[in-house]
Specification:
73% of the residues lie in helices and 0% in strands. By secondary structure, the chain is mostly helical. The chain is globular. The relative contact order is 0.13.
């Protein structure tokens, strides 16, 4: 999926919002306000993304019956969908930063707050 920077930002924001909603559903603390907000975000940011729209509709249809299951399925969808959207995943960037810190040596120095 290729898209402009603004479009990628909107899609990434949707993915982050969706992940928050999925985790709240799995934790059992999703409110009606959360669901309405998620639907509004989807209408604004992924109206032209059929797979994302379908995932939102499925989530909203299922969350009242099985919140944890609906949250898990939404999270699984977003994990795959976001990987296709942006190859520069946060976990890859964090691993690279940790590797740099280990190579730099400052991360293990006692005078930098490390034991």
């Amino acid at each position: 999926m290729t898209c402009s920077s603004d479009r990628r930002t909107a899609l990434s924001a949707f993915g982050l919002n969706g992940t928050t909603i999925a985790l709240k559903a799995r934790a059992g603390c999703l409110t009606v306000r959360d669901r309405l907000g998620f639907a509004m975000v989807a209408l604004e940011w992924v109206a032209e993304e059929p797979a994302a729209r379908a995932a939102v509709i499925d989530f909203l249809n299922e969350v009242e019956i099985d919140a944890a299951g609906a949250g898990l399925r939404l999270q699984q969808f977003l994990d795959g969908w976001m990987a296709d959207l942006d190859p520069y995943r946060p976990e890859i960037a964090l691993a690279a930063l940790e590797s740099e810190a280990e190579q730099a040596g400052w991360a293990t120095r006692k005078d930098c707050g490390h034991d």
